[in-house]
Carboxypeptidase family protein
Amino acid sequence: MGLMEARGQAVSRQIQGYVLDTAQMKVKDVSVRLTSSLDTLTTTTSDKGFYSFKAVRGTDIRISFSMLGYQIVTKTVPSYDHSSFVLMPNVILTPQSSLIEGVYVVKTIPVVYGEDTIQYNMDAFKFRSNSLLEEALKQLPGIQVSRDGTVYAQGKPVSSVQVDGKKFFGGDVLTATRNLPADFIKNIQVIDYYGDYVTDKGLKSEESEKIINIVLKEDRKRISFGQVTAGGGTSGRYIGSVGMNRFDDGQEFSLVGSINNTNTSLFSFGSPSGVGDRERSLFDATDFVDPTDGVNNIKSVGFNFADNLAENTSFSASYSFTRRDNVTTGNSILQSNYVANLISNEESYQTTNDDNFHRLTAEFKHQFKNKDVLEINPVFSYNKVYFGNKRWRLINNNKVTNHGVYQDTSYQKNPNLDVNILYAKAFSKPGRKLLGNVVLNFNEQNKLEDALDSYVSIDSSTSTPTRSTFEQQYFIQQRSGTDGMKASVSFVEPFSDYSMLELRYEYELTDMTAMRRVEDKLKSQETDGFYFVDSLGVNYNYRFNSNRTGLTYQYTPNKLFRANVGFAVQPITLTGYLPREDMRYRYTNVNVVPTAGFRWRINEELDWGIDYMGKNNQPNFLHIIPVRDNSNSQNIIVGNPELKAEFSNRINTTLRKFITSRNQYFETNFAYNYIANKIVSDKTAVAGSTIQETTFKNTDGYYDLKWYYLFNTPLFNENLQLDFSGTADYYNNLSYVNDRRNKTKQFIYSQSLQLRYTWSDYFESMFNGNYVLNNASYTWPYQTEITAHSLLLSGATRGYLSDYVTLGAEMSQRFNAGYESSFMNNNPTIINAYLEVAFLANKLALLRFQCFDLLDQNKNMGTYSEYIGNDLYEARNNRLGRYFMVTLNMRLQKYPKKK
């Protein structure tokens, strides 16, 4: 028995649906018979044509529907679907007119909602012929795709992708969405993923992540396919890519490569935000701008392999390499407000980044004869980066003005190895489970950096202004390493039909080392030798040690209700050691961590849940290095080795309502997070200068409140789809300025609307509206409030002039107001247009003429704002401007010969 089959045997499912006649009337008293490898169950439909089976076990599930005067209909539950809740498509009974039995499906239900899974049946949606998965995802209710390829499901970023239950390119999202054709896919399952071995009754001790499982159509499980794209355009723009894929009943092989300077990424390395990018907001998805700063030249190549080595053994591996050359120019303003001392730093800058990233992943799974399961997942990455940064600065306060240049260049190597080992012990008693998990991490960083700081200072504090110069040049050698280990053992024991206990032990150990040598190159020139600044050197060892023992009780009286309560004790120890000074730092604490939650399925279409969790967050390494880092003379950083670990307390509640008959879905979530021993900045202005010094301390009082909702519904008919979503976040941030406690209260509200219209097979359009309010207020040095607004309106349309010609256009208009800097309050208009012509047999070739940013305003779109403590920061980076381009895409497909 294979691993997937074994999981299917263990899952206890609830299966239900409706039976209708050809007039779409619900039919009662239909005999419904379910058989599986373990069960045989029978029932009849209610007055509303509804049937339900509870506690269904086993695989090879078949359901037959029979009634006198109607043809017998037989349905199957796919073997790969191991959801605990399955809502079957409507069954249509046809009057008996002959002795031929058959399956008659009039309509496919577009979306099926389960407890932890939302399934999109792709046959119920209309997609452009030959479109890739990324384009198809944009048309699914509750799913948004930003221009950089980040996928959001129900407001949360998707972290991993599987194809028929196997990770594709190590789970990389972009590689899957930009390579798999939409018409290969039977359905897409969006899963709240807690891990492969959560018990079937839902005992979950960690927060879930969003993953996507792509289920291929049966006739696409054995196929070779690929595509080749080449294009060139104005302003030196070019793109080229190739992808080759082979699927053969569980065996998968893929090879992809790309080269371009149009800011198009192929790999996201398993991270929704990609490497080196800022975190994206969900609401970036509604804009037609290119969200990548600077101009990038990207080269990438990768392969993926997956196969079943034996009946109970599977193996997969993937490798990817990306080289990203980035040049970014921009300008910024940073205002730091102290009492009677406003320090303003205006900068123009240029950064260059040459990032070479290798990533190798593997996954090995084996099920033993006694049903025990072993999984080993190693991930190795190697990052080599050259970084250059040159900044022209004007810094002033009331009396001192500095004008100069800060420049640093660095060369960095960073190898990293993660190994995840899991063993699941099988028992004959249903529900009993023993899991062991070990995670090992080995990380090293070697960095060489040249830092040059030079400026002219004019001091007007006296009657006669004085002029002075400052120059500093350091060569910094830094080597650091982080070795970590996390181990956990969990034993689950059911002691009644409705109750179970989990005993869990977790151990975490993290060792960090840092060595730093700083050479003063100006002094070295004077002494004709190497002059090292001892006060800036570091030789530091740090260890974080945590033990956590907990007990969780879960009560599940029926399929509609589940409650759990738990209690854990977690002693932690933080130690630091400076060998040179023979100084030791030590912090110990014992955290009491209660957990609680419940899930209540109020009826077949409404459920509600509440969870509470406690979690430790150890300090960032840069926070605790006990050294005075003045390589940037205007912003001195001093680590605090006596920092304590943060402890967060989070309460989260979610309400979901789905109306299958109307294809409507509503979800709302509210979360409260309080952090004890919050690590905050402690800033001081050096008297009589523009210099600021920052260190860190622990404090209490931080909390945040977050709320979101989303609603999807068709209007009038399924050709008109409406999506509403909104968020409201409140942050009570804390910081210290000149030893005074400062609160920054920030409120961010977003409201988004999307309307999609499809008219027959020849025309489709989309309209987006998005409003964002950002309000920040400060308590020190005096009451200050900043309110910024942003409104975005955008629309896109696509028309099919014939079966071979497509014309499309998209436009977005943004309105900004309330920001401090004039460059933040720009109102750009973005217009893109394209013409596509398909030719050759089966439209295997596609010629595309496109224009990006007709008005040449995207280059001014890279704006950012941040308001923390007594700081106001606003910046703008350059982006790609207008260009025209011609691309040719060739699809390659080979189906197996029919016998």
About this structure: Residues 3-10 form the longest helix (8 residues). The two ends are 28 Å apart (CA to CA). The helical segments are 3-10, 133-137, 173-177, 521-527, 621-624.
